[in-house]
Amino acid sequence: MNAVKCENLTKKFKDVTALDNCSLEVGEGELFGLLGVNGAGKTTLIKILCGLSEKTGGEAFVFGKSVEREMADIKPLIGISPQETSVAGKLTVKENLEFFAEIYYKDKAERKEAVERVIETFSLQEVLSRRAAKLSGGWQRRLSIAAALVSKPKILFLDEPTLGLDVLARRELWKVIRKIKGETTIVLTSHYLEEIEALCDKVAVLAKGKVKAVGTVDEIKSSVGETSFEEAFVRIVTEADL
Amino acid sequence: MRMTNAFIKRNFLEMLRYPLSYVFGIGFPVVMIVLFNIIGKYADGMDGMFNAKTLIPGMMMFSFTFVMMLCSLLVASDRTSAFVIRLYTSPMKTVDFVLGYTVPFFVVGVAQEIACLAFGGLFALIFGGGFFTFGAALLLMLEMLPILLICICLGVFFGSVLNEKAAPGISSVLISAAGILGGAWMPLDTMGGFETFCRFLPFYPSVYIGRVITGASHSLPDTGAYKFDSVAALGIIPIAVFLIGFAALALFAFKRNMKSDKR
User: Fold this and answer.
1) What distance in Å separates residue A176's CA from the closest CA in chain B?
2) Interface confidence (ipTM) of the complex
3) Would an 8 Å CB–CB cutoff place A128 in contact with chain B?
4) Buried b vs exposed e over B52-79: b needs ≥16 C-beta within 10 Å?
5) Across the interface, do B90 and A103 touch by the CB < 8 Å criterion?
6) Does the predicted model carry a pTM greater than 0.95?
């Protein structure tokens, strides 16, 4: 079963079409990248899949469940780490994780196990008792992703996870994302080409709300006859402008 | 209930770790009690207006308006950050959010009542003027709960429609207005038409009934004690109407806000 399936998905905001008949499929267990410049429609697509935004046309399914009709069934399956800081600033790292665990698990032992698991995976031991607001941007993002994984989601949406981070923090976060790759399906949005190239199994290039290309990085490069991913991306996006 | 509890706990911790909660929640009302007691002691002819029996109900109502401000600030800052957006994708329901915001501020409001009674009692001992029985104190605490809930609903409403910069500003305006319109420190019972106008709002009737419970005396000499008269009885109507109205308004604004975030 596909983790995500979009069929002619459309989203319009008054005069602006944010998504224009987008169709794509994300396989279970894949790390799927949504690549595009600012305003390409990446975040809008994620918001629709997470139930934060309502589509205006087409269909979207998460693990076979319709985002229009079965969102309540989808919610326990998904985890999201939004672009902005999305942790409780005055709570410590551990309290943040415990808070998210309490939302998703009835059993106290399960909660404890879930918190310990993400602390271990994300190497959060050294910052456990620090308040989230006092952490560096890199640690905050790491905590944000850890919080999204507490519930063991079947699919994790990472919206621009390294936006605004310095090179070192970005590389650290890549390590973390590689660590969780394979454990869950990941849909990652980014406008950093090297990030998509380094992490993703499959990529969809979005431009002006349309899916312009889908495939592996190599497939995308060869589809436009370029050897560099950057050149291939620029060509696909500029062709969309014409 | 589990999700509600988790959110209550989180909001409590956020509030307890926000220093201004203590300054505005407890510190400011206590300072006001001290100041008015000193004024009452040294200003000729005003000791009746500023003794504990008259002052405490007004100060309780006034302190709840700071709960409103703190509540609006938390709701607004959660709404404008991605934190609450992420919670919208969780299985949490509207009732979890509303109770999660209401319960911690309700507890703070009760703590304010206790602080007002404790400090009011202490200064009544120092400056004189008498106090009221333990039973009356408990009854006063109960009687003040509807206006506390009104203030929390207003906080949720302002937090739902304003951003975190505008919410405290607008709340400040209402804090000042409630102090005046509730007669917290003004002798409204000497102001004729203005007092009549204030009877239609929930602030003054709450204070008025509170003063009936404490056995306070009216501001002008020889006008006797506050009694459960028609002003008190009819005052229950605006309290009930505003409580239901603001609760509905807060719920509507919060739900609408959740929907508009989805667009």
Assistant:
1) 20
2) 0.86
3) no
4) bbbbbbbbbbbbbbbbbbbbbbbbbbbb
5) yes
6) no
